[in-house]
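To the structural biology subgroup,

Please find below the input and predicted structure for Flagellar hook protein FlgE, which we are adding to the shared reference set this quarter. The sequence is reproduced verbatim from the submission form. If anyone notices a discrepancy with their own records, reply to this email rather than editing the shared folder directly, so we keep one authoritative version.
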Amino acid sequence: MLRSMYSGISGMNNMQTKLDVIGNNIANVNTFGFKKGRATFKDMINQQIAGASAPGAGLGGTNPMQVGLGSMLGSIDTIHTGGSLQNTNRELDLGISGDGFFRVTDGEAIFYTRAGNFYFDEDGAIVTSGGLYVLDEDDEPIIVPENARSFSIGQTGVVNYVDVDGDLQEAGTISLAYFANPEGLQKQGDNLYQVTPNSGAVNITTPGNEGTGVVVAGTLEMSNVDLSEEFTEMIVAQRAFQANTRIITTSDEILQELVNLKR
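Predicted structure (tokenized):
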């Protein structure tokens, strides 16, 4: 069989993966704190036809001759550029202006998220929409008493409330995590990330310290998906897919001619 046919198949498979990534980006264009993905590719092994030779007496050097055998998936990256902050004027909506992740837990494992749409549970603990507790630096939930008259969250993550006597009290400080390689984090669904061997160890601090961003109450970070870019990439992937199908049909026509040599 012709090598070009298998090269075309590899190209079609790669473009399908690229379209899958683009489709997921577009589906999450309105997901709070979502970070878009990007598919990259690399060439497969090349078949050696002739090796390179060094210059000699009376002859110059020659370059190697190789035939490529198609392409393969290189990586699917998570692009951690910041999304724009949208005003909601809701006190428990928190956006991070800068680097860092909120730390949340299900009681067993600790997860990390950029989505700051938080809520109170029955006990007054600050939780995610899925019921995970938001943690302070000591890995403890932050609880505002049920009888508190009001509460506020500052840029440094400090949660204050006014008790029944009208006195200002501190419920705790929301902590942030940062990593040497945030692109190495693994997506867990529900806007959550987990540590991997390549993300680096987790570093815990409070907002505004150690290079992390500050917390902006009353805002939410939007997805960093750019629809114009995604639609352009979709067109590129579609045309590349069509070009690879043309490679297969052309190779098929050549094979048909070879089969028809004997009649």
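Summary notes: The first strand starts at residue 37 and ends at 43. The chain has a mean pLDDT of 94.

Regards,
Lab coordination
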